[in-house]
């Protein structure tokens, strides 16, 4: 960061102490190059060293190791089994069958686990890629038109878009805007192409980052395009959201929501989940200007001293939402109009077949925790590959970790369904509760995990199903249930009706009071309790819900009306009961 930039931030009151070391790291990285290429040649270690450990995140990767075997390797005087997780950039989550077959083959041949992981960021992840295969991974993706630029790090990440296969024309318009926003906000540095694709180094041209700046953003930044009434992307988990407003089936503009986010730190009340603020409506032609204005305002005003308070939500709370909004209007050369009416009613995926207005058919497959792997008796990964070999439409990954086989001709329906059922991808016995439960990856690969999540959820849901049945609830009843292994927010537990946030192995904080539409942040109800204690609490509360609720009253709404949880506020420090 230049002296001029620092001086400007001091005037704005944004430098609240010494700059975080990540600011030095970015400044000295030569536009995200660092010495990554040198580390790739180092065969003494399987990991990346010094600053490069952080810099590879801007290229879409996290260094991880298998925590299940970490202690055993230490006893053998071996370093941890270093590998990387890669998250692809897939605006709107759409992928072609031929692309799918290529990623399936790479996962099978070149990863430790052989799986493809669908994520809450509406894309896929490779887990367990060893250093000798990293460059091959990027070049394989590039050969099929995919990259992982800016899917991690202090940049705008993969842009989400509501997966709406029914209203095809509106979805196509919204999806195109998601792609445009993604491209507009991407880093402009040539570092990715130079390092991973053997791109030519141009020595006499200076890199420029007109939107992100030479020091990039203070912290990660997440953007969505959402089509009401579906809130499948969970707008209040994101820094910037464009809510599609249509007239006569055509997109006319967006309501702009700014400042959502779910991450927090245990024991630090200066960190908290926060809902996004509605800034107002903008016409389509101003969309990219507004996107850039929000990002550059956060770039210049965000806290670069304390990374725990560096997200957009904290900037809004510190300077005031109205002040931030006025600056965005100034930079974008617009004035927000009054927000157009819209309503979110739900956020789950419509599992099974639906028919679009274009006469095409779409099959949404429930993929528990998004993990595509061949299990005994359920070869899920092979099943999707078999479908990809004959499918003429596209695949759509959802922000709920599911997969839609989209654009199926009527003549192909029976054949695709047969493959799906034979491989366990369609199962009529899966409950609504299971379909509406979700977890992040957590152990064994996530270095931040404090407790299990993905491996914990399936059996835990079975117990919850039993509780619902015990209290006589209809098979269609469900509670939005989410589990995260730490308070970082990846599984979006802080927008659930029941949210479990990992505190320690086998222990979680229990949060209650969210709603079905995803517009309310829950509060902590019990802290640091075991699975058995959680199930006892759920049993008692569901028992009351089944007897005392009003007509069509959801579980989260009931916990507030009944006084179990006080009305959930949405500003700082108000999420504790």
How would you portray this structure in words?
With 577 residues, this protein is an alpha+beta fold. 31% of the residues lie in helices and 18% in strands. It has 18 helices and 22 strands. The protein has helices at 3-12, 21-27, 36-41, 52-55, 70-75, 97-110, 134-143, 168-184, 191-196, 287-301, 312-319, 321-332, 380-390, 413-422, 432-435, 457-470, 531-548, 555-561; strands at residues 61-65, 82-87, 94-95, 116-118, 124-129, 160-161, 223-226, 240-247, 250-258, 277-283, 352-355, 361-365, 371-372, 374-375, 378-379, 394-397, 403-408, 437-439, 481-484, 498-504, 507-512, 523-530. Helix 11 crosses helix 12 (321-332) and helix 16 (457-470) packs parallel to helix 17 (531-548).
Shape: globular
Report strand %: 15-25%
Strand order in the sheet with the most strands: 1-2-5-4-13
Largest beta-sheet characterization: 5 strands, antiparallel
- The total count of strands amounts to 22
* First and last CA, distance: 41 Å
| Helix/strand structural class | alpha+beta
Helical percentage: 25-40%
Low-confidence stretches: 570-577
Mean pLDDT equals: 93
Tally of contiguous helical segments? 18
Structural Rg: 23 Å
């Amino acid at each position: 960061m230049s002296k001029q930039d620092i001086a400007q931030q001091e005037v704005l009151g944004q430098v609240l102490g010494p700059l975080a070391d990540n600011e030095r790291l970015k400044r000295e990285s030569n536009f995200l190059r660092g010495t990554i290429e040198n580390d790739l040649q180092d065969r003494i270690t399987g990991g990346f060293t010094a600053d490069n450990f952080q810099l590879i995140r801007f290229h879409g990767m996290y260094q991880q190791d298998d925590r299940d075997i970490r202690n055993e390797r230490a006893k053998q005087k071996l370093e941890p089994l270093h590998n990387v997780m890669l998250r692809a950039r897939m605006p709107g989550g759409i992928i072609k069958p031929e692309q799918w077959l290529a990623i399936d083959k790479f996962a099978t041949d070149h990863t430790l686990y052989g799986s493809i992981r669908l994520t809450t960021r509406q894309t896929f992840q490779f887990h367990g890629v060893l250093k000798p295969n990293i460059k091959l991974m990027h070049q394989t993706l590039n050969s099929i038109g995919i990259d992982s630029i800016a899917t991690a790090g202090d940049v705008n990440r993969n842009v989400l878009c509501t997966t709406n296969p029914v209203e095809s024309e509106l979805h196509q318009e919204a999806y195109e805007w998601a792609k445009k926003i993604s491209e507009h906000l991407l880093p402009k540095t040539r570092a990715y192409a130079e390092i991973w694709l053997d791109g030519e180094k141009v020595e006499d041209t200076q890199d420029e980052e007109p939107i992100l700046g030479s020091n990039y953003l203070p912290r990660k930044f997440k953007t969505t395009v959402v089509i009401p009434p579906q809130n499948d992307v969970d707008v209040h988990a994101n820094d910037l959201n464009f809510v599609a407003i249509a007239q006569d089936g055509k997109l006319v503009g967006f309501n702009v929501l700014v400042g959502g986010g779910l991450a927090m730190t245990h024991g630090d009340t200066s960190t908290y989940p926060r809902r996004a603020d509605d800034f107002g409506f903008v016409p389509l032609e101003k969309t990219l200007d507004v996107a850039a204005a929000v990002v550059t305002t956060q770039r210049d005003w965000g806290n670069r001293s304390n990374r725990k308070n560096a997200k957009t939500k904290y900037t809004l709370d510190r300077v005031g939402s109205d002040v931030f909004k006025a600056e965005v209007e100034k930079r974008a050369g617009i004035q927000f109009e009054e927000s157009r009416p819209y309503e979110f009613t739900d956020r789950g995926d419509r599992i099974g077949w639906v028919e679009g207005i274009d006469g095409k058919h779409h099959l949404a497959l429930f993929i528990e925790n998004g993990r595509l792997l061949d299990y005994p008796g359920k070869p899920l990964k092979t099943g999707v590959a078999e479908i990809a070999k004959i499918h003429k439409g596209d695949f759509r990954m959802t922000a709920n970790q599911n997969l839609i086989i989209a654009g199926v001709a009527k003549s192909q329906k029976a054949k695709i369904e047969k493959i799906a059922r034979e491989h366990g991808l369609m199962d009529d016995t899966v409950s609504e509760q299971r379909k509406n439960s979700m977890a992040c990856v957590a152990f064994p690969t996530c270095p931040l995990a404090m407790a299990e999540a993905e491996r914990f959820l399936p059996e835990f849901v079975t117990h919850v199903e039993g509780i619902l049945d015990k209290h006589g609830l209809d098979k269609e009843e469900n509670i939005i249930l989410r589990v995260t292994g730490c308070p970082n927010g990846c599984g979006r537990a802080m927008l659930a009706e029941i949210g479990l946030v990992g505190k320690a192995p086998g222990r979680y904080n229990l949060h209650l009071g969210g709603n079905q539409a995803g517009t309310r942040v829950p509060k902590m109800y019990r802290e640091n309790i075991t699975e058995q204690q959680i199930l006892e609490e759920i049993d008692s509360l569901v028992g009351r819900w089944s007897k005392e609720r009003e007509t069509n009253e959801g579980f989260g709404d009931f916990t507030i009306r009944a006084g179990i949880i006080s009305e959930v506020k949405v500003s700082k420090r108000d999420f504790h009961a």
